User: Fold this.
Amino acid sequence: MKKLFNKVGERLNRISSMKLTLLAVLSALIVGAFIIIVSDVDKLKNGDIVGAFSTVGSAYWALVVGSFGSLRAISNTINSSTPLILCGVSVAIAFKAGLFNIGATGQMLAGGMASLWVGFAMNGPGIIQVPLAVLAGAIGGAAFGAIPGILKARTGAHEVITTIMLNNMMAFFILWMLKTDLFQREDRTDPISKLVTAQGRLPRLFGFLDGRSDLVAHAGFFVALGAVAAYWWFLKKSTTGFEFRAYGLNADAATYAGMHVKRLTVLAMVFAGAVAGMAGAAEVLGTYGYASANFAGNIGFDAIAIALLGQSSPLGTLFAAILFGALQAGGRQMQANSDVPIDLIVVLRALIVMFIAAPLLVKSIWRTKSATISAGQTFRGWGS
Assistant:
């Protein structure tokens, strides 16, 4: 009977969490619509309120069409979502252990450079080279992620500070690497790498459609889905995954239960770094085919919002990453069709995170009567 009540309670909590997430997204869209109306100064001056509302409708419809309205749009959404899924899982893994991994960008850069070396140093066969390159990316990211984990376990250095600093260190280190003879492309003076060989590229998902070079989605999407599945299995079926969750919920109780909390700290950052490293591999081997100084972009920081929106759960993180990827892919279509600037996408992302971080505000706005509301992810204090 106790197990039955626990299962019912868990299901109610999941439903409540899903409801909160959907309401947060809806709230962000409503506020975004208000921003579009207020910024449409010309129509407001002429008293054309209907026209201002029409701009909202055309902008949001263009966003949907640009994300899922055609095979090209779906391909762009998949391509944008792939690194976001992997980095989102990276941040979520650390969240589950009560750690705040802001270093996904640096880990992604480290993994991308490791996979790049395998990508241009070999020339097939692809069935061997591609898995080796992805594995190299995971190892590179794991090694870089281990640094803040060891510092946290041995000295108590907070992972927020160390990962931020390591992001900058890796960015400058890559600038140097891309100017060396090993990595720099021949006959180039700017920091840009050699090209990945054709055998080392991740296959295109729609490669069977000849002549469609605009379909950029690649097999890294399957790597990302595999990472989500592995993350689910790890949390639900493995002993270490249970220890991660216990450690994240209550470090003192985990210590009292005999768990090796220092080992868990290092493992959490190693696993997080490995998945972020695969995101770097996906970008280098699939999207670009080479590396530049900024191939990671802001993906590592977007992943923090994705993990928060997805409540650090496997499926939640997956859908949150696809949502962010769709917003990114559809933003260009929205700007072209409705003259609404693409910066609105950044505003929508920020609003979604804000509403997720303030569940009581969402409950007050929508007057929900959910039994429980998650206050969001919690983390241990400084030096703990």
Residues 371-375 have pLDDT under 50 and may be disordered. The CA atoms of residues 204 and 211 lie 12 Å apart.
